[in-house]
Specification:
Helix content is 52%, strand content 19%. It has 740 residues and is α+β, with helices and mostly antiparallel strands. It has four domains: 180 residues, no CATH class; 155 residues, no CATH class; 192 residues, no CATH class; 169 residues, no CATH class. The radius of gyration is 31 Å and the shape is globular.
Length: 740
């Protein structure tokens, strides 16, 4: 009986299944992406045969970890340790590949054996590189070719395979040369440690923790599970996936409610024949659960297909190896069943509470005769509000998708605006590393700044080193290293206390001071050193006010980046000469990129990646909205079949019927766009209130963004109306008048 009821309206059932499936596919795909990144990192850390990973304890990411390589002999002397190998992991930007993994290893250490050479030979001398099989194919390189990493030319001496897609889309060079190109002299990102017996792993970890309290030792297989970014990846995947699922859930509720409305007389008859309320509830819930289970299965298949497709993109190839796990399918079915319960409970209760006598008298949705003329604001709005519940649910379903566009777009615009504000207040030009895959990994030599300061058109050059640390109370604490006498320090307006005068002094942002409960005179430990808070500053920029400022030389020491900055801010004597100065700097220093301070953030790899991710997620949510509006308009056509037949019999042409349905759909979409803007801004403001990360994600909402949201909604309305309008226009007047 459940299947029979669902198949009464095959098109509506299919569209509802599709809406649920897209939401479930989002959960599967986003979960797979998160697990893929985690698995890829775990493979890199554990595949060499290492039992223990020793890295910087308060590093926010393994890429930001910096450990002195000179402690290797001390670690090797610990009882039970067999071998110790330092590794330097770096990521750079390559053409069409924003995240290209470069591993620096000692060719004579055990970790090198993991890279199985299938062509050529292993590294033996200087300026030699092993390329992964996928990287060699992507960049069309063979043995003997030259290959540039960070403007340094290497000779390809071998092609390797490991079975890991992320590694095979990367390269291996010697540790010394990796330290050189990543500007990390005498440093490693982590040590890989092999032990003599498995039962010695835990005692050695305890001994490492005792000897090196500023470092973190853990089993190589478990290292990523203990990292903050692992939890963040998973939480983000669930959060955005569930937003997409909400759209599917609202579509489910809409479908079940319409089914109840259509079968009101039938349900009244069943109640009159003795069906109890519980039996009616079971029937409606049964239909909802069958829909959700089928949608869950279809969504899982779509999610797998989407994951496999993403894994073949050049920019992300190999990033999602071994990401599809049984746990993802369990999550998908849990989400689907939750949708069934959430989408079916209200329609089931409504059906169960129908009075038999009133239900048997039900004649359908009350309608008024159509006007001889219709327009956008009149009959269109009146028609869509005939079924207020359906209109509200459809508006919310579409609004969720549009709202996600607004939220993510606002976050991206907010990040650009915040970075642009800091840069523009400190100079007209910003110098960045040309091929940095991440601002936190950017490194520019001090010499660039000194040379630039000597140009006659330049008034001030301010270097800034950007660092991220983990401290109690926040997983991501931003550290800004700036010379206390530089022009850029003026941007940090002191509201309490005084400016930095000594080496172990810190300015703390207003938001950070509030979250960490610190005031002037207190101390704060960051990256292994203790600093005294001498002042509280406020810039009006969220991510700056959530961090702290220490002297540049202290930041370089703390983050082990001697004579380096993340970017330079250049103030000119005459801003009109900005283009000429930019050309001069780029001609002299090929490893840097120069842009206007108000524009540089938009050009960074970080922002381009975020916008790409936001566009993909927005498209997914919009797709759900499009299915929802098509479903709603089809329901409207089914309900009004006799009315449309009457209009056709009275002389309405097909074109006029199409215009009526399209205008109703566009009106509904416009209302959904307004709802989406309100939902998106509300969600963005809610996220911004989160104490630890909210300041980073504070959105900026412009008229352009709102116009884009309304435009998307209207396009959805137009597309979603096409099939229902075609169906309505092609109804035969005689058959439509007979429709029951």
């Amino acid at each position: 009986m459940v299947l029979k009821n669902l198949l009464r309206r095959k098109t509506r059932t299919f569209l509802t299944l599709l809406g649920i499936a897209i939401g479930v596919a989002a959960v599967v795909a986003l979960g797979a992406i998160a697990e893929g990144f985690i698995n890829s990192y775990s493979t890199i850390l554990s595949s060499s045969g290492a039992d223990i990973i020793l890295a910087q304890g308060d590093a926010a990411d393994i890429l930001l970890s910096a450990v002195d390589e000179n402690i290797a002999p001390q670690v090797a002397s610990i009882y039970g340790v067999r071998r110790v190998a330092g590794a330097l992991l770096g990521i750079i930007q390559m053409p069409d590949v924003p995240y290209f993994v470069v591993m620096g290893l000692d060719p004579n250490e055990f970790a090198m054996k993991h890279y199985r050479v299938v062509e050529g030979e292993t590294i033996r001398g200087q300026r030699q590189v092993l390329l992964g099989r996928t990287a060699a194919k992507t960049f069309k390189k063979k043995i003997g070719d030259n290959y540039k990493l960070q403007e340094v030319s290497f000779k390809v001496v071998g092609i390797f395979e490991t079975g890991s897609g992320m590694e095979e889309m990367g390269a291996v060079i010697t540790l010394k040369e990796a330290q050189e190109i990543f500007k990390k002299p005498r440093q490693v990102a982590y040590f890989q440690i092999q032990v003599q017996r498995p039962d010695l792993i835990d005692p050695i970890i305890k001994e490492l923790a005792r000897r090196y309290p500023k470092l973190s030792a853990s089993r190589s297989d478990d290292y990523m599970e203990g990292q903050q970014q692992t939890q963040m990846f998973r939480a983000m995947g669930w959060f955005i996936g569930l937003i997409a699922v909400v759209g599917g859930g609202l579509g489910m509720m809409n479908t079940m409610l319409m089914s109840v409305f259509e079968r009101t007389r039938e349900i009244g008859t069943l109640r009159a024949l003795g069906w109890r309320r519980a039996r009616v509830v079971r029937m409606i819930l049964g239909e909802a659960f069958v829909l959700s289970i089928l949608g869950g299965i279809l969504g899982s298949i779509l999610g797998i297909a989407l994951t496999l497709w993403i894994n073949q993109l050049p920019a992300l190839i190999g990033m999602m190896d071994n990401a599809i796990t049984p746990g993802l399918f369990v999550q998908a079915m849990i989400v689907a069943l939750f949708l069934g319960a959430a989408g079916g409970i209200y329609p089931a209760m409504r059906a169960a509470n129908l009075q038999p006598v009133e239900a048997m008298r039900y004649e359908g949705v009350s309608v008024k005769s159509a006007q001889s003329k219709f327009h956008f604001g009149g009959i269109a709005l009146r028609n869509i509000f005939r079924q207020r519940t359906r209109t509200v649910l459809t508006t919310l379903a579409i609004g969720v998708g549009v709202g996600l566009v607004v939220t993510l777009g606002g976050m991206a615009d907010g990040m650009v605006a915040q970075l642009g504000t800091m840069g523009s207040k400190s100079g007209e030009l910003t110098i960045t590393e040309a091929k940095a895959s991440d601002m936190g990994l950017a490194a520019i030599d001090d010499r660039v700044g000194r040379w630039t300061a000597g140009l006659p058109e330049v008034e001030y050059v301010s270097g800034l080193l950007f660092g991220v640390a983990t401290i109690p109370g926040t997983p991501y604490f931003l550290v800004f290293g700036i010379e206390p006498t530089s022009f850029a320090i003026r941007h940090f307006a002191i509201t309490e206390g005084d400016r930095i005068r000594g080496s172990k002094e810190m300015l703390l942002g207003r938001i950070a001071a509030k979250n960490l409960k610190k005031k002037v005179g207190d101390t704060l430990q960051v990256v292994g050193a203790t600093y005294r808070v001498v002042g509280i500053y406020e810039t009006g920029t969220g991510y700056e006010d959530a961090g702290g400022v220490i002297p540049l030389v202290e930041t370089q020491r703390a983050f082990k980046k001697p004579n380096q900055v993340s970017f330079f801010m250049v103030k000119l004597k005459d801003p009109a000469k900005a283009d000429r100065v930019r050309a001069q700097i780029e001609a002299r220093w090929s490893q840097v990129a120069v842009s206007k301070s108000t524009e540089f953030a938009e050009k960074t790899n970080d922002m381009q990646t975020f916008r790409s991710m936001a566009s993909a997620l927005s498209f997914l949510s919009i797709l759900i909205g499009g299915v929802g509006i098509m479903n709603a308009m089809l329901m409207s056509v089914f309900e009004r079949t006799r009315e449309i037949g009457t209009l056709r019999a009275l002389g309405w042409r097909r074109r006029r019927v199409v215009g009526m349905i399209v205008s109703e759909s566009v009106a509904l979409a416009f209302l959904s766009g307004i709802a989406g803007i309100l939902l998106g801004v509300g969600l963005g403001n809610l996220i911004a209130m989160e104490p630890t990360m909210g300041a980073w994600l504070k959105g900026e909402y412009s008229f352009r963004l709102f116009a884009q949201a309304i435009g998307i909604a209207l396009v959805l309305g137009g597309i979603g109306a096409l099939y229902p309008a075609w169906r309505a226009a092609n109804l035969s007047p005689i058959e439509a008048l007979r429709y029951e």
